[in-house]
Predict the 3D structure of the following.
Amino acid sequence: MTTLRFDPAEPWLAAQPQDTARALPAPCYVEPSMALRDRDAVFARSWQLVGHAAQFAGAGDHAPCDVAGVPLVIVRGEDEAGARGPLRALHNVCRHRAGPLATCAARGARALTCQYHGWTYGLDGRLRGAPEMGRAEGFDPAEVTLPQARVEQWQGLVFAALDAQAPPFETLVDGIDARLAAAGHDLADLRFHQRVSYDIDCDWKVYVDNYLEGYHVPRVHPALNAALDYASYRTELAPWHSLQSSPLDTAPTLYGSGEALYFWLWPNTMLNCLPGRLQTNRVLSLGSGRCRVEFDFFYIQESAQSAADAQFSDLVQHEDITICSAVQRGLASGSYEPGRLNPLRESGVWHFHELLRSAYRDRR
Ligand code: FES
Ligand SMILES: [Fe+2]
């Protein structure tokens, strides 16, 4: 397999008109160096889903997470009266010798104390105390502060971004609120139910590609195909997200009637909205040829249907895992040259690849 070159003049990196577009070259999904490139060019410069609002309801509620290799702690601050204040994404890396402040989620903390030597930070990230540092000449705790990442709460979900170059959050989700409201969804009403994680033998981009098209549904997901109306399946593109939608079949099925909305947010977040239910997917790179997908389930109300929903989702997921793993083997075989995309059914894949090409051009 030829080594990929990232010079912006390389033809494969040029923007491609949709009607003549080809898929990305196989080395993009296979070369070990891509894990680092994706971390720096994509994950470090984009919004990452890091939790949901109920985890940070009160002052001092916090949870650790990781964005592009940087440990963060998302924490609800306090106002002057000690009541609920702003949400922050502090670097979870102590300014003494890089120890962790938070190693698990907790509620109502008054401060964050490093697990290594006990330096203590306020919920705003300022150092409040450093034990036995009296002899350290010129050391002024007031000058020590944890760096902060950007953080946003939207529709009951919490996102963080490391980099000033990530697009403004409003542009990421522009138009989604109106679309959700029109379909009768209010995601903030939903309550977290459970997380299910899958480790998969494919590059994270193989999984995202597969998510972004319904072209494979009739062949790979026969049961899902029966619940959806494939003929009416549509894809709409926005600058930083896309939406696949399908009316649910009106025959009595698992999901009842209404509309299925499948939002993808650049680069690795999915929001699968069905009547009374939200499922978020977060696709995490585990290095070359491997990824983890975390499914978080939210419902208005838990019911017998929640269990059936999770079971059905697991079936569909295993169908996707089987095909994505086979695709990864095909990409790694040395046999594959980039094929033509289907403009009718794969506009979401084209859109994702255009954003990737742009990210790679910007960050050689
Ligand atoms: S590393 Fe945090 S107190 Fe030493
Ligand atoms: Fe699928």
